[in-house]
Amino acid sequence: MSTKMATGMGGGQDGRQAAAAAVAQARSTFGEDQPDLVILYCSSNYNYAEVLETVRQQTGRAPLVGASTAGEFTESDVRLGSIAVSLIRSDQIRFFTGLAEDVDHDPETAVANIISQVPLEVPDFPHRCIFLLTDGMVGNGEEITLMVANMSGSTATLVGGLAADDFKMQRTVVFHNDRVTDKAASICVMASQKPFYTSVNHGHCPLSKPMRITKARGNVLYEVEGRPAWDVWKEATAAPARALGIDVDAIRKSGEVAGYFSNFELGLRTGEDSYKVRYPMSINPDGSVNFTCTIPNGAVMCIMDGRDEGCQIEASRTAAERARAAAVADGHTAFAGALVIECAVRQFLLGDNFPSAPQAIREVLGNVPMIGAELYGEMRLEPGEFSGYHNTTTVVLLLVE
After folding, report:
1. In the chain, where are the structural domains located?
2. pLDDT on residue 201
3. pTM of the predicted protein model
4. How far apart are CA 369 and CA 354, in angstroms?
């Protein structure tokens, strides 16, 4: 059997019916075998508890991880406000799940707890991948990523993302077996006889000159070059924002702010011409800006330009190409499935053209089962790397047959 994966989607107003439809669609190709792992992505438009219980009942209460989302897709469909399910069964991968709560108040203890629930090594299964989903509103995505990687021994690949809530910016949740909870992290450690192949890529380029962050604390950026962060953003983006019909002096509502920042994010310089993108969530009355992760004081940054639709779509394609090329180089040409995390921000950047991003991935991988979600942050960290949190990127994880 090796590894088998199937996906399904469901929609409509009734969460139970939508969840049942998603499982039924996955079952149509997966069969009635008991899955070893279920992945659930669910829009905030549904009652999470009802959806989760329906999925659990129809999958034999198999181990489950998942998160609330801001968009869902499979290899055959792309939707907003729906439910996506993946069923996975394998005789070459072992799956171990765990849940950590209170990641906001004491993340170090929470991560230590979640790591204690999963094995660090599995005899005869030398390759490990950590699939991690965590609350998207806490603001410590970078720290959680690094803590999980370090406490698990730093020998595993890590991929995942931050839960979303359809840009309501109110409450994001993760799923673990029968639990629905916020301020938590859900984890699945996959131990495999074959390697995992991953990639990450973004489609932004610098808009401003390089600038120094002169005051930041936690996930709040206060000053850039000694000036209030929001003043710097307005000055650098006034003209290009106007071309999009945005008056930077007039935006106030959360939706307007989210749409604006989707085009003009922060880029932390990691090399001469390389940047890690960080998504600004909101603006404070004092002109400071909130992010989904810690912003390092003293770092060099640029304001990034994400308006080129072609670059955004090509970034998704390139992520898939890199993961596939690495697998092929090792002699693996058949894939059981792909787990994809896309940034929810691409909804604003691509609008009605967003389905082109998942479609670009499918064009690379062929008719391979794929489950994906649009989340508030993305994770991809390979052994030996020291930073693995991203925004407005595509993360691809390939499971080989």
Report:
1. 3-201+311-400, 205-307
2. 87
3. 0.86
4. 19
